[in-house]
Design brief:
The longest helix is centred in the middle third of the chain and has 15 residues. The chain is globular and about 40 Å long. The chain has one domain. A two-stranded parallel sheet has the order 1-2. It is mainly alpha-helical and 171 residues long. Helix 3 packs across helix 4. 42% of the residues lie in helices and 8% in strands. It is found in: Lipid droplet.
Amino acid sequence: MCGVPGITLFYRNFLETLHTNLGIPVWTICVAGHELPFPSSQEGLPDNPKLYNNVKAQVDHKMAFIKSYVPRNRKIFLIGHSFGAKMVTELLKDEQVSEQMQKCVLLMPTLERFKDTPRAQFWLLMLKVGFIYPLILCIRSVNTPSPCSCCQSCRCPGVDHSPICTSALVA
């Protein structure tokens, strides 16, 4: 389970290493609303603001994934980083998850009074003003489009960066 921001790409090398060395399936689940589904996916982002700013809804999102995609007879290892550790501890309250769990690892856990921390206040504010979705679009676009024509370095498609590009400011 990812921490905040809940972007799975951050964990890619770690997860690939686990998969290679242990030879077991590895799944990662983003924090709901922090990542777009793959373009090939039939899934979309649910239009439900409560899903994105409520711990219980985030836990329910992870629970739905486990119950939908992880075979019930399969033992699972739950690893949670930061806020993801809080979600793991909440998932363990469910009887099915508890029975399936073989091991649980909490990496730098955020367990109590999370919403009172300065970092949590920042991310909760960003969630409320809708910052995460545009950020995801920008991060995602960095890997795919060609550079803009004004300076050959900007990577956000469909956006005129000429007023902010260094070459445009010098000219």
